[in-house]
Amino acid sequence: VVCLVAYHIFFMLFVWSYWKTIFTLPMNPSKEFHLSYSDKESLEREPRGESQQEVLRRAAKDLPIYTRTMSGAIRYCDRCHLVKPDRCHHCSVCDKCILKMDHHCPWVNNCVGFSNYKFFLLFLAYSLLYCLFIAATDLQYFIKFWTNGLPDTQAKFHIMFLFFAAAMFSVSLSSLFGYHCWLVSKNKSTLEVFRAPIFRHRTDKNGFSLGFSKNLRQVFGDEKKYWLLPVFSSLGDGCSFPTCLVNQDPEQASTPGGLNSSSKNENHLFPAKPLRDSQSHLLTDTPPWSETTAKAEKGKVGMSNPALTMENET
């Protein structure tokens, strides 16, 4: 009875997560990343080169983007006519830009990205558990098959086939699931493993890693009761992501509050553009500052930005 209940639970979760992975539409960049009509006209009139980059820099001035192309240019999609958010890529199969794109999976006929990455992980996990469960419960009959302990019927072939299929799928799924668990722990996507994100100052393969705990929460959310269920609980909006401390953007003249001129020579400064409110709590576990707390901390270099507590962790 226990085995039968466990079988139905694994099967139900497997089908549920597989369904969500397939039918959850990948999220596209919000309207603020699309160029206005005047910007599109300006971009078409200008010759390729620095003049086009100037148009894109104006369009991306107030957008929370920190990554660049290999040449240091603004990441722009000429098919979707938008400034690409960080970790966003254009899928040639879907023919649209996908937020935090990991890969296009032919097995689910869908792009795996920000909107369904958690479902994809749960699909791998429950598929692996399902195959292990089948292999474990079939093992005793498989042993009897080789010791001639089973009746001589056609069911002998079915038992052998079932065990081999479950065992082989378990091996392949364990390697794939283990790989994606490593990606989650490092806060990377499959595309970012093959090509590390390029920030304004340099290439940084761990630029989005906030530490194991916060990396995990970014995918599965803060509510642990939803972690094992195929319901969306990932943090953020998919358009902006908290990062490690990176050098200040030289294009912006403003300096973050609390950083004096002597701190400009330090190796790491927090980006001048603010992160989205939905992401800010990942950078610190401390409650918001009150006015008295801010006065007490006045004079400490960099401490007016709670995100600077990330420096020791990363």
Automatic annotation (TrEMBL):
Biased composition regions of type Polar residues, renumbered to the chain: 252-264, 280-293
Pfam families: DHHC
Gene Ontology CC annotation, any one: membrane
Molecular-function annotations in GO: protein-cysteine S-palmitoyltransferase activity
Domain Palmitoyltransferase DHHC: start-end pairs: 74-193
Lipid bilayer topology: Multi-pass membrane protein
Protein name: Palmitoyltransferase
Organism: Lanius ludovicianus (Loggerhead shrike)
